[in-house]
């Protein structure tokens, strides 16, 4: 990813049109991932909760966008303050970044070779989906108002600072020098740790784990996984911040690792359960995408295969940890995003190669443990910070407006109780609108 600290006193110049076109496309691709996630999660819950699940993802698009343009971008990518936070006031309301377009020939504010506004939009999409990812852990039981409040507070006090640590010139980027090209720590470990804290404090769904909570619409799940895979090329290749060779490398490593992860997950299912499933294929796809995200610019093809295969196999096993430890992570955010994010981040220290764009050798390529310890420190720091702060926010909401829907609302379904809607109209079962009208006539 381009060094964002060049925004201090933003450089003025003429943007590269090819790079700008690619980055606008990448931003749109990453935004598409959030509706894709909504389908992925929505298909995994019961039919009476699907709209609520989709609304949790879609609401993040509204909440995070408003906060990002007001102060979030500045807090993440503004001038560094003590290696912990960007100056929240520097680009408040994107001031100075939206100017200079009356005389565009004289130049506009740039990040690298693209307009600063394009970089703002691209990074916004990362913030949106990070918040949306958390919602899968609390399906079927969290009050929608409590979710809105949690999302707004968490993105402010956790995501914005962590994005600065990892990408904006903060301590993980500048002092530890851990590599996270596109979001293994800032997005996946960050959201997974918050999901774990929220699931523990919220408590188990009524009847879990004795009651089977089967996905109500597996085609939705597969559609969501497909949209996520498609959008992820913007996520990873877009993080090159240009239409260049780095984007090409990350595009290829992303598709290779994802394919390997899907196959590894299905192999584990076949050995363990006797049958490979469509849910397993979709979950393996996401696990591979998660794991290659931090490593996509650090590995060669062999490394991408290793990252994908290891993530697919371990995440397939990790999703059962919730039964062993008793936390109800409804849609396996912890088993896929937290575990997958840790795997991808740490494996950079093993299979990273100096021949890749980030030019760092890991342990298996003669680099010793130097990069490995840096990766571990970055992963553990983000995990611990997100978990602790998310827990504090959740406890505060629980003590004030309440965190969980009441038993009656859970039983009726979150769609009816929280939104006064249903996803499916079963009243017309037994006849189409046309046949019903004929009978009434």
UniProtKB/TrEMBL annotation:
Membrane topology label: Multi-pass membrane protein
Gene Ontology CC terms: plasma membrane
Principal place of residence: membrane
InterPro entries recorded: Ammonium/urea_transptr, Ammonium_transpt, Ammonium_transpt_CS, NH4_transpt_AmtB-like_dom
Residue ranges crossing the lipid bilayer per the database entry: 20-41, 53-73, 118-139, 146-167, 179-203, 215-235, 247-267, 279-295, 301-321, 333-352, 372-397
Compartmental location: Cell membrane
Gene3D superfamilies linked: Ammonium transporter AmtB like domains
Entry annotated with the keyword Cell membrane: yes
Domain Ammonium transporter AmtB-like as annotated: residue spans: 21-424
GO function term, MF aspect, one: ammonium channel activity
Pfam family, one: Ammonium_transp
Binding partners and assembly: Homotrimer.
NCBIfam families: amt (TIGR00836)
Function per UniProt: Involved in the uptake of ammonium/ammonia (NH(4)(+)/NH(3)).
This protein's name: Ammonium transporter
Species the sequence originates in: Nocardia otitidiscaviarum
Primary gene name: amt_2
């Amino acid at each position: 990813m381009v060094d964002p600290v060049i925004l201090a006193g933003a450089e003025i110049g003429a943007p590269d049109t090819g790079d700008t076109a690619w980055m606008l496309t990448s931003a749109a691709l990453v935004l598409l991932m959030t509706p894709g996630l909504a389908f992925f999660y929505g298909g995994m819950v019961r039919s009476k909760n699907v709209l609520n699940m989709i609304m949790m993802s879609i609401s993040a698009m509204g909440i995070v966008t408003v906060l990002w343009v007001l102060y979030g971008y500045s807090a993440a990518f503004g001038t560094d303050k003590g290696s912990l936070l960007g100056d929240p006031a520097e680009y408040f309301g994107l001031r100075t970044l939206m100017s200079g377009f009356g005389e565009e020939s004289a130049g506009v504010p740039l990040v690298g070779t693209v307009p600063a506004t394009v970089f703002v939009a691209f990074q916004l999409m990362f913030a949106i989906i990070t918040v949306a990812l958390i919602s899968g852990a609390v399906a079927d039981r969290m009050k929608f108002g409590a979710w809105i409040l949690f999302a707004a507070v968490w993105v402010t006090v956790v995501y914005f600072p962590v994005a600065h640590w990892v990408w904006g010139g903060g301590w993980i980027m500048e002092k530890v020098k851990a590599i996270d090209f596109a979001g293994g720590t800032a997005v996946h470990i960050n959201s997974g740790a918050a999901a774990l804290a929220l699931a523990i404090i919220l408590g188990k769904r009524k009847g879990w784990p004795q009651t089977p909570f089967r996905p109500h619409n597996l085609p939705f799940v597969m559609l969501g996984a497909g949209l996520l895979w498609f959008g992820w090329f913007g996520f990873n290749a877009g993080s090159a911040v240009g239409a260049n060779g780095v984007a090409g490398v990350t595009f290829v490593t992303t598709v290779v690792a994802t394919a390997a992860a899907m196959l590894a997950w299905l192999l584990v299912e076949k050995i363990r359960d006797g049958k490979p499933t469509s849910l397993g294929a979709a979950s393996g796809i996401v696990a591979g995408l998660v794991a290659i995200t931090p490593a996509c610019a650090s590995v060669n093809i062999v490394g991408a295969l290793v990252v994908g295969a290891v993530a697919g196999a371990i995440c397939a096993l990790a999703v059962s940890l919730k039964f062993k430890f008793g936390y109800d992570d409804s849609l396996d955010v912890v088993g896929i995003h937290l575990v997958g994010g840790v795997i991808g981040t740490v494996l950079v220290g093993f299979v990273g190669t100096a021949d890749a764009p980030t030019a760092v050798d890991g342990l298996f390529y003669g680099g010793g443990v130097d990069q490995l310890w840096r990766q571990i420190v970055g992963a553990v720091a983000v995990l611990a910070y997100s978990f602790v702060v998310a827990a504090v926010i959740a406890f505060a909401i629980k003590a004030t407006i309440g965190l969980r829907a009441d038993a009656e609302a859970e039983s009726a379904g979150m769609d009816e109780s929280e939104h006064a809607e249903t996803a499916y109209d079963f009243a017309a079962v037994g006849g189409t609108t046309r046949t019903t009208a004929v009978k009434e006539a």
